[in-house]
Amino acid sequence: MAVTVLGGRTPGLTHFVIFSWYVFTVWHNFSITASGRHPGTQSYGGRWKYLTFLDLFLQTAFFGLCFLTDVTRHFFPKLGRGGPASFLTDLRDTILAVLAFPVGSFVVLSFWLLYAYDRELVYPKFLDDIIPQWLNHAMHTIILPLLLVELYIIPHRFPSRKKGILGLTLFSGLYLAWVFWIHHVSGVWVYPILGFLSPLGRGIFLAAASLTMVPLYFLGEKLNSLLWGR
């Protein structure tokens, strides 16, 4: 079967290429930050207040972990269950299920839905002169296809739904707390759309956005099951 052949022969190379791509992309993000051209990077929280950048950093760390797991399994194949390769594999699978896939998918889908409705709410036009188009797509488009590649090349063991959704909920809660803290300190909302909403509307919007990640968790679980029978 094609999945087995691809998964059995090329995950290390695939992970190295994807990890290198993300390192390159993060480097370009920091170069824009260093130039001082992006106004958001000069305010409280800097680049780290944006879910897009946090997700980009997450994807970089995740695929770096994938490559490290491949290398460990290659050089220490006989350590067996409980060894470093086993630990890294479990960690890799948990991060994919709980964070990398649902958060990455959410960033792509929510960005383009809001962009299609009114780009000024999420990605004002002046950013076109600051952020290259390829970098915009690297942050908001390519992430999802690369996650699908990851699901395709190797099987993953998802945690129990209770633990998985609890972990995702904790992440969402921490990020929302970060967004509100930034507004408390600086008086500025991370995303322009939040400033146009009433307090009730803002609460409903953020709650709905957070809940959207749950079906995306189920989607990742379902895709993994369809591809690998797990």
UniProtKB/TrEMBL annotation:
It comes from the Eukaryota. It is found in: Endomembrane system. The keyword Transmembrane applies. It catalyses: 9-octadecanoyloxy-octadecanoate + H2O = 9-hydroxy-octadecanoate + octadecanoate + H(+); 9-(9Z-hexadecenoyloxy)-octadecanoate + H2O = (9Z)-hexadecenoate + 9-hydroxy-octadecanoate + H(+); 12-hexadecanoyloxy-octadecanoate + H2O = 12-hydroxyoctadecanoate + hexadecanoate + H(+); 9-(9Z-octadecenoyloxy)-octadecanoate + H2O = 9-hydroxy-octadecanoate + (9Z)-octadecenoate + H(+). InterPro entries: ADTRP_AIG1. It is a multi-pass membrane protein. The chain crosses the membrane at residues 12-30, 50-72, 93-114, 134-153, 165-183, 203-220. Keywords: Membrane, Transmembrane, Transmembrane helix. One of its GO terms (cellular component) is membrane. Belongs to the AIG1 family. This is Androgen-induced gene 1 protein-like. It comes from Acipenser oxyrinchus oxyrinchus. The gene is AIG1.
